[in-house]
Design goal:
With 399 residues, the chain is an alpha/beta fold. Helix content is 31%, strand content 22%. The chain has twelve helices and 17 strands. The strands form four sheets. The chain has a seven-stranded mixed beta sheet with strand order 5-4-13-14-15-12-16. A five-stranded parallel beta sheet has the order 7-2-1-11-17, covered by helices on one side. The longest helix is centred in the last third of the chain and has 30 residues, at 346-375. It is globular and about 65 Å long. The structure holds flavin-adenine dinucleotide. Flavin-adenine dinucleotide (FAD) binds at residues 11-17, 34-37, 47, 49, 133-135, 168-170, 174, 191, 193, 237, 289, 310-312, 318, 321-325, 327, 399. Its cofactor is FAD.
């Protein structure tokens, strides 16, 4: 097989990297995942995710992990309320009978990121993930210089070698420049993300509105997305049109809740006071994230022994709920190309995968940018509701 006697290094243990490791290991490949986190437990894993039939769920099927998923997903956490800035409800899935289930094309079950990561980690052979491996550089070696073509250098001074390198290291990928010089562009929207522990006690009004599901609020060309997590906390993010350099230019200390609250009151001045709850909980750490997108027409010549998956390949804003799903589908397509036996060399297998990935991203990325733009326009709410009415299942869902 193409991968016989080849050492594969996956950089980054996010959903994309871990899915790929599992799929390749099922085919007997020699894989390591290098992850900068110190351990599996080191940090909270962010908001909930809805997995899609043709991508995230397909990847779990192929990885033999759909039963583990069924044991860990959160029924009804996908129920959405669309509201305006006064929290007036315009669409309410809590009043709809749930008709779809596993096997239906439009069933999009929710899972928290932590349990998804654990399912994938538990499926790997012991020692596959090398924690505390923050990659600072990679260097290419000639056949005369070394047995393996890549040397990987970590912040802690360790090094590793590999024959094939896969960058699954997310939006700010260190590996991407070795594959392409193409850079992302700013989408015009920045998000500010936060998490409220014990949401029932700390933000009771929004908690009541949320009802264990999701809220998408739109008004005055701004959005707030809220989702309930299995641990009783609530994740949320604001989205609004602002300059790319707002994060540094605003002078806000994002660890200082009072400063963030003052900013919110001004920026969301026309929004009802109910939303203040999200910003009044002591100790909330806010994370600002300017939303970038890779160019939709990006393409490059396939390299013989290095490629990208997930956000490293096609970073995009979260307004179509596709990022994790695309990362997991990349893993399926790349592992298929590398292990199907259809290709005589690794470069051809990588080229085949990348061709599929470019075409898919051109389409999904376009939809994502359209959503991002209209949701942050004066007609955002009307357009979103029209989209639901026209195509009830073709809907963006906040993460
Ligand atoms: C606010 C918000 C909401 C979102 N909501 C959704 C949603 O609802 N649905 C959805 O599908 N997507 C959503 N997304 C997008 C989604 O989070 C990403 O698309 C997805 O996580 C990409 O997966 P990945 O495996 O490519 O990268 P990541 O999840 O970013 O994982 C990359 C991994 O690489 C590691 N790493 C990075 N640099 C290095 C290094 N130098 N050395 C070693 N390791 C490194 C990181 O620690 C991390 O574990 C959302 C994003 C945001 C910001």
């Amino acid at each position: 097989m193409l991968l016989q006697n080849k050492k594969i290094a996956i950089v980054g243990g996010g959903p994309g990297g871990l899915t790929l490791a599992r799929l390749l290991q099922q085919k007997g490949a020699d894989v390591k995942v290098y992850e900068r986190d110190e351990s599996q437990e080191v940090r909270a894993q962010g908001a909930t995710l809805d997995l899609h039939f043709e991508s995230g769920l397909r990847a779990l099927e192929e990885a033999g992990l759909i039963d583990a998923f069924k044991a860990n997903y959160r029924p009804d956490a996908d129920r959405l309320r669309v509201v305006d800035e006064n929290a007036k409800i315009f669409l309410d899935e809590h009043h709809e009978d749930s008709t779809s289930s596993f096997g239906d094309e439009w069933f999009r079950p929710e899972i928290d990121r932590g349990p998804l990561r654990n399912i994938l980690l538990d499926s790997l052979l012991p020692g596959t993930v090398v924690w505390d491996s923050h990659i600072v550089a990679i260097e290419q070696r000639s056949a005369e210089e070394a047995e393996h073509s890549w040397e990987i250098i970590f912040q802690n001074g360790n090094t590793a070698a590999a024959d094939i390198l896969i960058g699954a290291d997310g939006a700010k990928s260190k590996i991407r420049p070795f594959v392409t010089p193409i850079k992302p562009f700013y989408s015009g929207v920045t998000v500010l993300e936060g998490n409220i522990p014990d949401a029932e006690k700390n933000a009771p009004k929004i908690y009541g509105l949320l009802k264990g599901g999701k809220i998408m609020a739109l008004g005055d060309s701004k959005t707030i997305s809220v989702s309930a997590k299995g641990d009783g906390s609530m994740d949320f993010y604001t989205g609004w049109n602002v300059d790319a350099n707002w994060v540094t230019g605003s002078g806000i200390d994002f660890k200082n809740g009072k400063q963030v609250l003052e900013w919110f009151k001004k920026e969301y001045a026309s929004w009802d006071d109910i939303w203040l709850e999200l910003f009044e909980v002591e100790g909330t750490v806010f994370t600002p994230r300017p939303q970038y997108c890779m160019p939709l027409d990006q393409q490059w010549e396939a390299k013989p022994d290095i490629t990208l998956i997930g956000d490293a390949a096609h970073w995009m804003p979260p307004y179509a709920g596709e990022g994790v799903n695309m990362a997991m589908l990349d893993a399926v397509e790349l592992s298929e190309s590398l292990t199907s036996g259809k290709f005589t060399d690794v470069q051809s297998a990588i080229a085949h995968y990348e061709k599929q990935m470019f075409a898919r991203f051109a389409e999904i990325g376009r939809d994502t940018l359209n959503n991002t733009e209209f949701m942050h326009s004066p007609e955002g709410l009307q357009k979103l509701l029209a989209m639901f009415n026209g195509q009830p299942n073709e809907r963006p869902v906040p993460g």
